[in-house]
């Protein structure tokens, strides 16, 4: 197999990939959303409200919660935090979701995943009213996405898609390889890229030679939670690489650092464009959560 000449020359002339600045893109998007929130409030006297439910203490979720609360206020929305103990029962959690479903001040509900053992994430996600399911993970919104119908799209895949369209424009005909088949990222990402006209390959835990598949991707989206899994030689020269992974590792000096699923130093010499960790997909996830919350508020008050 020979690479297309354009991709080869790009990789030779440009040994260091262009960084995709998700942090800057997200900051812009958040500003736009803040303006729209003000206009929405002027017209309807309603402030979009987001409820975040965190059960127990998962470290990844805590990073998310910290940034999310800040960004929610920056966008002029209200944020309602519900921190529940690890020992919370399924019945207690479902009762809280029931109250949030009824609460007119709440337009979006997000239950942080993963949930502690003993709580059923499927039952909990499906208990959220579809109009308030700003994570888009319940069966109604997931089903709409699978069928290509309008609905609420999960925040992380939506953020990845926004970055890809901003970088590449029309995605039609590109081969997108997705590594990871989770309901949170891989599967909805595959459905979104298929809807954009990509040829989509999904590699997962049982895939025999993921590296060989990855090397075919004009677009490579990596969402496995396995830090450093994707090495430089997994990447097609000139490809656009979106690293969704986010793992906090301990350094010898006692500090910690966030790393992605892609071995960045290697990938940067092969890829055409690449998202860094931190500062790539993470901030986009939060901006898209705000986007989805405003959209949910609009629908609920009949403005959309
Ligand atoms: N129902 C649900 N939906 C989620 O989308 C969800 C979840 N549960 N549980 C936890 C994971 C994790 N997650 C992150 C989002 C943004 C950053 C983020 O902002 N990252 C910054 C980190 C900056 C820093 O702290 O240094 C960055 O990558 O630049 C991190 C992690 C969403 N998650």
From TrEMBL:
<dbReference type="Pfam" id="PF00763">
    <property type="entry name" value="THF_DHG_CYH"/>
</dbReference>
<comment type="function">
    <text>Catalyzes the oxidation of 5,10-methylenetetrahydrofolate to 5,10-methenyltetrahydrofolate and then the hydrolysis of 5,10-methenyltetrahydrofolate to 10-formyltetrahydrofolate.</text>
</comment>
<dbReference type="GO" id="GO:0004477">
    <property type="term" value="F:methenyltetrahydrofolate cyclohydrolase activity"/>
</dbReference>
<feature type="domain" description="Tetrahydrofolate dehydrogenase/cyclohydrolase NAD(P)-binding">
    <location>
        <begin position="154"/>
        <end position="299"/>
    </location>
</feature>
<dbReference type="InterPro" id="IPR000672">
    <property type="entry name" value="THF_DH/CycHdrlase"/>
</dbReference>
<keyword id="KW-0560">Oxidoreductase</keyword>
<dbReference type="InterPro" id="IPR020631">
    <property type="entry name" value="THF_DH/CycHdrlase_NAD-bd_dom"/>
</dbReference>
<dbReference type="Pfam" id="PF02882">
    <property type="entry name" value="THF_DHG_CYH_C"/>
</dbReference>
<dbReference type="GO" id="GO:0004488">
    <property type="term" value="F:methylenetetrahydrofolate dehydrogenase (NADP+) activity"/>
</dbReference>
<keyword id="KW-0511">Multifunctional enzyme</keyword>
<feature type="binding site">
    <location>
        <position position="246"/>
    </location>
    <ligand>
        <name>NADP(+)</name>
    </ligand>
</feature>
<keyword id="KW-0554">One-carbon metabolism</keyword>
<keyword id="KW-0658">Purine biosynthesis</keyword>
<dbReference type="GO" id="GO:0009086">
    <property type="term" value="P:methionine biosynthetic process"/>
</dbReference>
<dbReference type="InterPro" id="IPR036291">
    <property type="entry name" value="NAD(P)-bd_dom_sf"/>
</dbReference>
<dbReference type="GO" id="GO:0006164">
    <property type="term" value="P:purine nucleotide biosynthetic process"/>
</dbReference>
<comment type="similarity">
    <text>Belongs to the tetrahydrofolate dehydrogenase/cyclohydrolase family.</text>
</comment>
<keyword id="KW-0378">Hydrolase</keyword>
<dbReference type="GO" id="GO:0005829">
    <property type="term" value="C:cytosol"/>
</dbReference>
<keyword id="KW-0368">Histidine biosynthesis</keyword>
<protein>
    <recommendedName>
        <fullName>Bifunctional protein FolD</fullName>
        <ecNumber>1.5.1.5</ecNumber>
        <ecNumber>3.5.4.9</ecNumber>
    </recommendedName>
</protein>
<feature type="binding site">
    <location>
        <position position="205"/>
    </location>
    <ligand>
        <name>NADP(+)</name>
    </ligand>
</feature>
<keyword id="KW-0521">NADP</keyword>
<keyword id="KW-0028">Amino-acid biosynthesis</keyword>
<keyword id="KW-0486">Methionine biosynthesis</keyword>
<dbReference type="GO" id="GO:0000105">
    <property type="term" value="P:L-histidine biosynthetic process"/>
</dbReference>
<feature type="domain" description="Tetrahydrofolate dehydrogenase/cyclohydrolase catalytic">
    <location>
        <begin position="20"/>
        <end position="135"/>
    </location>
</feature>
<comment type="pathway">
    <text>One-carbon metabolism; tetrahydrofolate interconversion.</text>
</comment>
<dbReference type="InterPro" id="IPR020630">
    <property type="entry name" value="THF_DH/CycHdrlase_cat_dom"/>
</dbReference>
<dbReference type="InterPro" id="IPR020867">
    <property type="entry name" value="THF_DH/CycHdrlase_CS"/>
</dbReference>
<dbReference type="InterPro" id="IPR046346">
    <property type="entry name" value="Aminoacid_DH-like_N_sf"/>
</dbReference>
<feature type="binding site">
    <location>
        <begin position="180"/>
        <end position="182"/>
    </location>
    <ligand>
        <name>NADP(+)</name>
    </ligand>
</feature>
<dbReference type="GO" id="GO:0035999">
    <property type="term" value="P:tetrahydrofolate interconversion"/>
</dbReference>
<comment type="subunit">
    <text>Homodimer.</text>
</comment>
